[in-house]
Amino acid sequence: MRHIMAKSLAPTDSIRDYMAAQEKKSLLRFLTCGSVDDGKSTLIGRLLSDTKQIFEDQLAALEKDSRKHGTTGDDIDFALLVDGLEAEREQGITIDVAYRFFATPKRKFIVADTPGHEQYTRNMATGASTADLAIVLIDARQGVLRQTRRHSIIASLLGIRHIVLAVNKIDLIGFDKAAFDRIVADYGAFAKELGFVSVVPIPMSARFGDNVTSRSERTPWYSGPSLIEHLETVSVDEAAVELPFRFPVQYVNRPNLDFRGFAGTIASGTVSQGDEVVVAKSGKASRVRRIVAQGGDLDRAVAGQAITLVLEDEVEVSRGNMLVSPAARPQVADQFAANIVWFDEQALLPGRSYILRTETDQVSATVTELKYRVNVNDFAHEAAKSLEINEVGVCNLSTRAPIAFDPFAENRTTGAFILIDRITNATVGAGMILHSLRRAENIHWQSLDVGKRGRSDLKNQRPAVFWFTGLSGSGKSTIANLFEKKLFASGRHTYILDGDNVRHGLNRDLGFTDADRVENIRRVAEVAKLMADAGLIVIVSFISPFAAERRVARELMAEGEFVEVFVDTPFEECARRDPKGLYARALSGEIKNFTGVDSPYEAPENPEIHLKTLGRSPQEMAEALEHWLTERDIAEEQYDNGGGI
Amino acid sequence: MNIALTHLQRLEAESIHIFREVAASFSKPVMLYSVGKDSSVLMHLAMKAFYPAKPPFPFLHVDTTWKFREMIAFRDQMAQKLGFDLLVHVNEDGVRDGINPFDHGSNTHTHVMKTVALRQALDKYGFDAAFGGARRDEEKSRAKERIFSFRNAQHSWDPKNQRPEMWKIFNTRIAPGESIRVFPLSNWTELDIWQYILQENIPIVPLYFAKERPVVERDGMLILKDDDRMQLRPGETIENRLVRFRTLGCYPLTGAIESEADTLEAIVGEMLTARTSERQGRLIDRDEAGSMEKKKREGYF
Fold first, then answer.
1. pLDDT digit string (tens) for B1-40?
2. Closest Cβ–Cβ partner in B1, B54, B257 for A3
3. N or C end of chain A: which has fewer CB within 10 A?
4. Are A84 and B293 a contacting pair at CB < 8 A?
């Protein structure tokens, strides 16, 4: 009967012994990767099956599924064991990474089965980021493919140092040694630049089990280990405990006034009670008073442990900072170079603002320069203005505040970050820090004696940046001109930054690609900021089609200073007016990347001022703007004089 | 001095890290407490993560009103002993409509009393992150899920479009109304759970230990007659057998196994020779192919 379980005859003592032996086992995390149809999922199914990890009820379900969805005729299709999503089973492909668990008498394993399709590269990267070893599968009939190279490069960038080159489906080429040697040589030539410590090639048939758990008689010419033999013995010890002490503070535990503990996971090194530690960002020093744990304080803790530290002194430390060894400190900088793998449909654009997140820190960041894109076929460094989905490149980044880090090559935990889109909150990229930029260390802010307040008081006004956004021909420039005239007449100091005019000078080197549009707005926003700092009321009249860049501009300005004005004229009306004849040319295809035609316009969702222009005169709208400004100034004056809001 | 962490120490540290990450990044987290062994481990880890403080979030039990009576007694006893804030939610609409597993089948019952009830509770309190005890080794759609698993404002999971999850750097950013389901036990196996319970001496519901209990054999499963609502079909008889449970849910939907394992050591010993998976005892997984994924997309944990 199915519900009867095999009786346990093992006495209690032997269970305790067994557990003690289990405890000493090490853990290896690895992934399978490579091109589509190279047999990754089949290999994992084979590993699970041959190490007796598939239960009877799972096997029964698998046999049923194999008949329904399988691609192996009457045989069990092991891929169906890992392709757990409906869409995957229907389409017979792997979309997302699956994690599987198995153990042999020597080791425990967590394996990530990752997708081969290029469009799911980010899911492969997800699986690779926590792995110590990668099995790169190659279909013996196909040899090294583009995805083989892409996955190898990503594995290398993400810090994987051990590769098994599984030349699979060797049965389909008649166990041909020459073909195997050719593939191994091809891969070796390509991978020599990737910094792998070990590359172990194994001829294999995942479907029939050759050289998977034991040496196959059908490859007598092969004298190396079977896959399992290798996985059980390969040494991947990164020796994180031997690196300098790094403790990213994750959470400040403060249950009462008498206890202030810093909770986190030790990224590297060790810490003992009494050790001197330094706060990475401030350089303040203290000593470890206690390493707190439920059930009694610890004397010592090592890399990988999640602990709570109590210090001798009341030093200022919060989430995002690090406690570190005083003898070997991390870098603290706001500009650095990094490798980036891009995951998002929307390309990485230099100048656009993203959220950068390290293990515990979070800060605004922009890519200041895309130095080059890496061609995954030949490692060529190619000039690029943007990084498209699944591409890899080297960038310079600038963060709004300094972060503490080590180069990724030295420390896989403190040298990594992700980039998050500010609007969709999607994880759009992964970064591995190379080094800080010298500039960051040498250029400091000059503190100036005459301030913004003084400059604007002298003009008897409050600075503001009126940011007009809207389609070409919506009426931005007309309204802006009238508005400035009114302000001028009432004695205010103003300046208009107009899209077309700026493109003749400051931005004459920029075109109309997405990347150039982002840079165009970035420069104008910076200029507007300087002008506001000079005490002026700035009127910016730019199409500025992307919400992300308008948000960056907003964040550059002081609180309440940025006034988004949406000049809302329907596309049909703009195209009908067509004051410069541009719509006619764009619609006929003569002009490319024209906003509203073949380049998107993202309308503001919450502008301070929404001008619906249909049926209203420009004069009327300029008056509304002036009225708005007057109201704001009165409100602020009352607030400043203690009158409340 | 040997400084390599053991397998269980590594798993424990990873789970504690996840708990703290949520406490630091979300404004209103909650822990889903289902009273089973995984919940017991989860609770034990939460106590460790924030020691000497108490976990800075409440525990929520979605009560389908068909849980084993011993589970409810154990739940209340633990809440009192550990002093955590326990919220209990029941879908009152379902109670009013008399939804039950006998008349409406496991699918409807689970959907109304568990999935819908959970969505109601999350909306009622406005939780932005919810811990669950699911493990990747349990079921093949769970093997695909992220540790921080994004849910839209309708609580649904989009398995084809999950956020990349790199290293231990979790993206905790969400828009208002959206939420994250968080699974600190993702990388634990059933055997790890039992070994950890044994190592840490964690209290669990007595139903996990073998004992003579009144059961009915139905659809190849042994169903415990936990109260008088149990309806017998023609030809069915109740007999006392030495049984225990490998997993716990609603009593009419959870199969017992015949076993003599009445200590933790014996349970671990039994695990080592097990030939069937733990969810084999769960009727809801067998309703149809891909049924777990479908339930998860609708908001089930």
1. 346 788 899 999 999 999 999 999 999 999 999 999 999 9
2. B257
3. C
4. yes
- At the topology level, CATH places domain A240-324 in Elongation Factor Tu (Ef-tu); domain 3 (2.40.30)
Mean pLDDT (chain A, rounded): 87
Q: Looking at beta carbons, which residues of chain B come within 8 Å of A2?
A: 220, 276, 280
Cβ pair A302:B221 closer than 8 A: no
Conformation bin of residue A37: beta by default, left when phi > 0, alpha when psi is -120 to 50: left
Query: A14-23, B72-81, B87-96: which has the minimum mean pLDDT?
Result: A14-23
Range of the domain at B73: 7-192+290-297
Say which of A99, A254, A418 has its CB closest to residue B136: A99
Per-residue tokens: A308: 């709570």
In chain A, % of residues over pLDDT 90: 53
Model confidence pLDDT, tens digit, residues A234-259? 887 667 888 999 999 999 999 988 89
Judged by DSSP in three states, A212 sits in coil
What do you get for the CA distance between the two ends of chain A, in Å?
77
- Give residue A14's pLDDT: 73
Token pair of B125 as six digits: 């309190």
Measured distance CA(A41)–CA(A56) in Å, rounded: 20
Cα B134 to the center of its chain, rounded Å: 6
CATH number for A331-437: choose from 3.40.140.10, 2.40.30.10, 3.40.720.10, 2.60.40.60.
2.40.30.10
Least Cα distance to A399 among A331, A319, A322 occurs for A331
d(CA A253, CA B56): 10
In a domain, B281, yes or no: yes
